[in-house]
Amino acid sequence: MSEVFFYHLTQTPLEVALPKILERALSANWSIEVRANVNTNLEDMSNSIWKGSEESFLPNCLENHEDVQDYPIVLSNSPLKKLRDCLIVVDQAELQENDVESHKRVCLIFDAKNEAQLSNARKSWKSLSEAGVNTVYWAESQGKWYRK
Predict the structure, then answer these.
(1) Considering the entire predicted model, what is its pTM?
(2) Contact by Cβ (8 Å): 127, 111
(3) What is the reported pLDDT for 1?
């Protein structure tokens, strides 16, 4: 069973925080699925990741790309058929019951300014904690993440 990391965005927008979290996951040599809700424009998200800092290289593609297996990061609106090591959930995408058992790490990123995301994260934290899943809360302060 994987750990579930909750990243509480209080200062940094998702477009800035996501590449940093992706870099950490890639440094562990993990393949990554970034799952967003069905209303999220994955092309915009992909372009944002590609245009990230010059110091990092975050090769990614959309779930329907013909060479999806060649990319370490895949952006999706629904669970991938071929599982990845790390699942990053953004924009209130659906976390499925078997996701915690199927991945080495699950990360839920939520924005403090979005009441629906905050409420959803609280519900997820409560249900996962009650189920005995190792949950870790990461708080943001002055541009850095702190485990709480």
Answers:
(1) 0.94
(2) no
(3) 63
Secondary-structure percent of the chain, ordered helix, strand, coil, rounded to 5? 30, 25, 40
Single-letter code of the amino acid located at 12: T
Can you read off the two tokens belonging to residue 70?
């060649």
pLDDT, tens digit, for every residue of 20-52? 999 999 999 999 999 999 999 999 999 999 887
In this structure, are residues 16 and 118 in contact, taking their beta carbons and an 8 Å threshold? no
The CATH number given to whatever domain includes residue 131 is 3.40.50.10110
Please give the angle made by the CA atoms of 97, 61 and 53, to the nearest 5 degrees: 105
Q: Is the pLDDT of residue 116 over 90?
A: yes
Domain of 106, in residue numbers: 3-147
Q: Are 95 and 89 in contact (CB under 8 A)?
A: yes
Running DSSP on this structure, what letter comes out for residue 122?
H
Query: Bridge partners of 33?
Result: 74, 87
